[in-house]
């Protein structure tokens, strides 16, 4: 874990090294000041030496300014190092997340990743700054003050030593007790973020079903869990203050009592007693600071483990040593393919799939909910790897391709595609960042999107709100189809992506595909028979297996499932799952 975190310091190593030196310099200056103060009292005030007071006073002012300057330097470099470290952690996590396969993403919830990128990194940032500044300052200040105390009076300094040992044991107990509560707290942040994210993204559904009270109660529970845990942890940590105050005042009383007797017996000067009292406060306050550092490190240790989990996660899918960069054509071949999302699953999602699809064919895929239609097409662009068998695209096993090269030739349009904040043109150019406006317009014409874009006030420069909330479901799907077409792929997969458009528009889109991109292999997943009946061939999926594969006419004769679906839909019910038997 430390190696993983240390690797992210990178260009901030100099600032990280400079900060402790500045803090040690500040400590040295602060240690000198009580000695100068003692000299003013003993050799200046008591002896009536005004010149000595002026000289040492001026020296104290210089020392104080040096201490201030060193403290500012430590603060500046410490802030630069810690914020830079946090930036690199976020960058490392985010970049690694981009390499994740779907199976990697499945291990982390979206809310969990958000918490790790925000709250957890902030905890580590604060802890790192405290390590560079306070964790260096406090022990050195404590040690220097203890040494100077023993130089002045070993007898009185022994009081500090005993107090430090007792206080150290008590604070170690407090930190140990609080640690387990802080460790439990951060996973609860995931639940809280999940509640917020889910509520905000589905706010229209919440209001439509008048579930505001339910969601408020759900958030209250998640927030209350964090409140309870932190109350327990902070309740334990709160003992720091009374224990510290008791120890400080006890030390001051003992030192004042014993020191007064020593002054009377000429064993100690007034200035030395003043210095010892200053060192007393210095020692005990630094000990308290150390205890708070331990609490902060305890909190950040849990966060550090969660951050390192993301950074150290290795993608399940990687490029081969000598990848193939050119996809010859859009032909697809499944050879005895089986697939499971989890390696230890008892029942595979796909079982013994054998298909041979020629380049340029239009293939319909139909099947009931849970029949693994989407799982089948996800294997083509290698979003998952097959568990058994072989899947080839363009005559080459997909595992031999460079993944970026393969995915650039396989465009996927999902039922619930996402549009990003920005203009329509900016969203379309996700398909091809170099596409001209004319090319974008042509793609939209093929996807039947141009007609509604032209009616918008700003046309292709119309701003799309976050998540595409200012366009309808059908408009969003058509924009996503146009975006996919701009990739000029060899394989186009439409995963129920015309479900929100009317049948007339659906027919226009299919006709445009047949006329304008005849060389592209088109896989169309649909629930409506009308969307696939004109395809070259149709795959009927049932419980993870291919139940039938042929033309519309062949399946009507040979496949009972397809025939039942067709009759149920053309008969008017349209209820696929009820009469399709899937």
Which terms would index this structure?
single chain, 582 residues, alpha/beta, six-stranded mixed beta sheet, 21 helices, elongated, disordered C terminus
What does it look like?
The chain has 582 residues and is an alpha/beta fold. The chain is 62% helix and 10% strand. The strands form three sheets. It has a six-stranded mixed β-sheet with strand order 6-9-10-3-11-12. Helix 18 (503-516) links the parallel strand 9 and strand 10.
Distance between the termini: 49 Å
Beta percentage is 5-15%
**Poorly predicted spans:** 572-582
Share of helical residues:
55-70%
What value does the average pLDDT take? 82
* General form: elongated
Query: Strand order of the main beta sheet, please?
Result: 6-9-10-3-11-12
Largest sheet: 6 strands, mixed
If helices are DSSP runs of H or I spanning 4 or more residues, what is the number of helices? 21
Radius of gyration of CA atoms, rounded to a whole number: 35 Å
Number of strands: 12
Class derived from helix and strand content? alpha/beta
């Amino acid at each position: 874990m430390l190696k993983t975190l240390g690797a992210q310091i990178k260009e901030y190593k100099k600032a990280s090294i400079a900060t402790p030196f500045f803090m040690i310099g500040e400590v040295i200056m602060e240690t000198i000041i009580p000695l100068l103060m003692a000299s003013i009292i003993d050799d200046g005030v008591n002896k009536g030496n005004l010149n000595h007071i002026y000289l040492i006073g001026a020296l104290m002012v210089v020392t104080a300014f040096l201490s201030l300057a060193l403290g500012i330097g430590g603060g500046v470099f410490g802030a630069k190092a810690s914020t830079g470290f946090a930036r690199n952690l976020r960058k490392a996590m985010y970049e690694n997340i981009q390499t994740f396969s779907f199976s990697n993403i499945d291990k982390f919830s979206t809310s969990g990743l958000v918490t790790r990128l925000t709250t957890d990194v902030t905890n580590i940032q604060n802890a790192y700054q405290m390590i560079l500044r306070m964790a260096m300052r406090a022990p050195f200040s404590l040690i220097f003050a203890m040494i100077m105390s023993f130089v002045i009076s070993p007898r009185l300094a022994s009081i500090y030593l005993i107090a430090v040992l007792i206080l150290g044991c008590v604070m170690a107990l407090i930190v140990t007790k609080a640690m387990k509560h802080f460790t439990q707290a951060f996973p609860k942040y995931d639940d809280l973020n999940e509640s917020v994210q889910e509520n905000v993204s589905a706010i229209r559904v919440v209001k439509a079903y008048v579930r505001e009270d339910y969601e408020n109660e759900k958030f209250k529970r998640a927030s209350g869990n964090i409140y309870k845990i932190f109350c327990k942890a902070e309740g334990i940590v709160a003992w720091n203050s009374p224990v510290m105050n008791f120890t400080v005042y006890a030390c001051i009383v003992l030192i004042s009592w014993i020191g007064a007797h020593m002054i009377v017996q000429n064993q100690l000067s007034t200035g030395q007693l003043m210095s010892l009292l200053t060192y007393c406060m210095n020692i005990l306050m630094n000990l308290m600071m150390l205890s708070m550092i331990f609490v902060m490190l305890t909190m950040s240790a849990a966060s550090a483990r969660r951050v390192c989990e993301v950074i150290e996660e290795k993608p399940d899918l990687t490029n081969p040593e000598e990848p193939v960069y050119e996809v010859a054509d859009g032909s697809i071949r499944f050879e005895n393919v089986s697939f499971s999302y989890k390696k230890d699953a008892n029942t595979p999602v796909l079982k013994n799939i054998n298909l041979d699809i020629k380049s340029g064919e239009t293939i319909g895929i139909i099947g009931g909910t849970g029949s693994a239609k989407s799982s089948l097409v996800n294997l083509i662009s290698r979003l998952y790897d097959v568990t058994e068998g072989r899947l080839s695209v363009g005559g080459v096993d997909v595992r031999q391709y460079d993944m970026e090269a393969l995915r650039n030739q396989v465009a996927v349009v999902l039922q619930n595609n996402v549009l990003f904040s920005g203009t329509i043109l900016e969203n379309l150019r996700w398909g091809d960042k170099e596409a001209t406006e004319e090319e974008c317009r042509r793609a939209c014409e093929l996807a039947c999107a141009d007609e509604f874009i032209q009616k918008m006030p700003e046309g292709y420069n119309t701003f799309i709100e976050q998540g595409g909330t200012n366009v309808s479901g059908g408009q969003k799907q058509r924009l996503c189809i146009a975006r996919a077409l701009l990739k000029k792929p060899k394989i186009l997969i439409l995963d129920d992506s015309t479900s929100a458009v009317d049948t007339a528009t659906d027919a226009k889109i299919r006709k445009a595909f047949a006329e304008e991109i005849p060389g592209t292999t088109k896989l169309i997943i649909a629930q409506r028979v009308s969307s696939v009946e004109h395809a070259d061939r149709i795959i009927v999926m049932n419980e993870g297996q291919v139940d039938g594969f042929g033309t519309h006419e062949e399946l009507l004769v040979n496949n009972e499932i397809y025939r039942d679906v067709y009759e149920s839909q053309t008969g008017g019910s349209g209820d696929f799952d009820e009469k399709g038997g899937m």
